[in-house]
Amino acid sequence: MTRTVYVNGEYLPEDQAMVSVFDRGFLMADAVYEVVSVLDGKLLDFAGHMARLTRSLDALSMDDPLTEDEYLEAHRQLVQRNGITDGLIYLQVSRGNPGDRDFVYPPKGTRPTVVMFTQAKPGLADAPAAKTGWQIISIEDLRWGRRDIKTVQLLYPSMAKMEAKARGADDAWLVEDGKVTEGTSNNAYIVKDGRIITRELSHDILHGITRAAVLRFAREAQMQVEERSFTLAEAQAADEAFVTSASSFVMPVVGIDGTPVGSGAVGPVATRLREIYLEESRKTAI
Ligand code: PDD
What GO cellular-component annotations does this UniProt entry give (predicted)? Predict the structure, then answer.
């Protein structure tokens, strides 16, 4: 089946969807994005993703071309038209097409480009990896200094992912000044003596929507949460480790640079948080 994708208000077969070669997203990575997960045909944490989209656009002084209701309608149309039960919806807003290449931003009123498409992921919530956990490598964090803005500048995370794959691992944790920032496309956590530890929010990491929900659920379940940075050595000596994102939910990490974390098997805290996250998020999915 040909996917139907959204481009600037139109629903088109993917092979007929076009964006200009002068688009700032293409030439300058001048674009922001969101990834929303879909379970049972419903959107998880939609309001959170929309709030972060607004924050990213504001941080880059980019106009928001659609209202939240219009984004919601487009998400739902894509789910329906592509028959998505479980999967992801990718949304990208770029500063648009100024008609030429220039470092100067295009004049106000230049229409941003909005592109959205679906990725079908049958059984997304039952990923077998959640039972076995991920192996992680560490790699220096060489990204720019505003990782809180969800831009499409993903070359370095992509290189880090490739390095992880080349070394037989599943993902990489990025390390700066001796401390873990986050994963290539997820937030990073360790568990020590029952305490859940994850880096505090700043410009250094993306403010994960899954992170916000998981920390809220953990606190509601009377678990201890500590928002502070941690070293790789601390992570390797932890009882458990895990990552969170819209596409992996809560994913246990069982090895870091070849050192088993805790018993080297998926631990109870990550398992419980995954269950709570999926259960609670399904309840509020729209
Ligand atoms: N990535 N940190 C980074 C660098 C990310 O790219 C992501 C998400 C997260 C987790 O954020 P959230 O919980 O809101 O998904 C943290 C998405 C899934 C991606 O690029 O595909």
Answer: cytosol
